[in-house]
Amino acid sequence: MFSQTITNYWKSQFLTGDIIYNDKIFTLTINHELSEDSRVMVLENTDGQVLAVLTPEMADKLDLSKGQEMSELIFRQKLNEAGVILHGADCLFYFSEAEMNVLLQESLEGTVRPLTEQDGAIFSEFESSASEQDLDDAYVELDHWAVFGSFEQDRLVSAASMYPWEEDVQIADLGVLTLSPFRGKGHARKVVRSICKYAYEQGYEPQYRCQLDNEASTFLAKAAGLTLFGKWDVVSPNCTVGKSE
């Protein structure tokens, strides 16, 4: 369903290294290449399979080794006992190959256009009309790799921006924000599809993330034609367990 870029990326994250446990439901891997910020990660696929990966240092702290009885529940109990806190899962959405082909045939909506540094005043007015919480959650910035906006009567009412997810990985992560009075009018859907089409044209796979409890964002992803790939969790930035001194 999804491109090789997507499937290969997540396989490289969760199945590279020493697989110390594997059954039909749960797989646990020790990966020497993980960064400190990703020293513990969990991915639940839509088919119910759960993949977990951690650094050798974290495996030592959790007293994990080959041959142990293991399951997702046991793994999470060990995390809890060691004081390892996860950030809270994000839903990961991507376009299926079929939906990508549909998207690439579309024309840019008349009310949507790319934004540049010349739109600084317009974008500042847009930001000042949004709440701090919405700005933090969306992470839409004018200086990102790509920025698109949707207008209503010459006013910027919805914007999306993208930045490369990781160096040497052709995935672009996106955020989107629509001002409260203009929600439910299709602006966000149009701006998401427009910026995603642009990403494909530049050789990148669009990535849409949102927290599990963000029903409005989940609805938007599906309305924009994206499909749920899985639920991804990573160690909390506030967790000190396993950090380098």
Q: What's the CATH class of the largest domain, please?
A: Alpha Beta
Fraction of residues in helices?
A: 25-40%
Number of helices: 8
Element-level helix/strand string: HEEEEHHEHEHHEEEHEHE
Radius of gyration: 20 Å
Uncertain runs are none
Output the CATH topology of the largest domain.
Aminopeptidase
Structural commentary:
The protein has 245 residues and is an alpha+beta fold. The chain folds into 2 domains: 4-92, no CATH class; 96-225, Aminopeptidase. It contains 8 helices and 11 strands. The chain has helices at 4-14, 56-61, 72-82, 97-104, 120-128, 132-138, 187-201, 215-223, and strands spanning 18-22, 26-30, 40-45, 50-54, 90-94, 112-114, 146-152, 155-166, 169-178, 205-211, 227-234. It has an 11-stranded mixed β-sheet with strand order 1-2-4-3-11-5-10-9-8-7-6, sandwiched between helices.
Keywords:
elongated, 245 residues, Aminopeptidase, 11 strands, 8 helices, GNAT_dom, Acyl_CoA_acyltransferase, alpha+beta, 2 domains, GNAT family N-acetyltransferase, eleven-stranded mixed β-sheet
